Amino acid sequence: LLGDERVQFVREILDTITESAKVRLAYVSIFLNRLRAHNSVTKVTTTNLAVTFHSAFIRPKVSSADHAVQEATTCQGITRYIIDNADELFRVRSIPLMTIPPSIIYISIE
Length: 110
What we know:
- By secondary structure, the chain is mainly alpha-helical.
- The chain contains six helices and no strands.
- It is globular and about 40 Å long.
- Residues 102-110 have low confidence and may be disordered.
């Protein structure tokens, strides 16, 4: 999948989760995207973030330990993509998220 097709594919997957889960995922993804933007200072890359957070983003059904390892790699890739493209996936305007308490943030999911 290329560019817009990939974004559309991930949006279709995101449409399968509840609205409240989608808002939480958007908030965390946008925060991690902005954290990643400062990786020259923090030394935190999207790959590091995906390895750390993939199990919180995606929980596949696993039938064996070998399958779990394969699924972890796939889930890390999807998580990395969501973090890298959070602003586009969730169509977020430039909002200083860290200045607004999470309980009152509304992220428009189109």
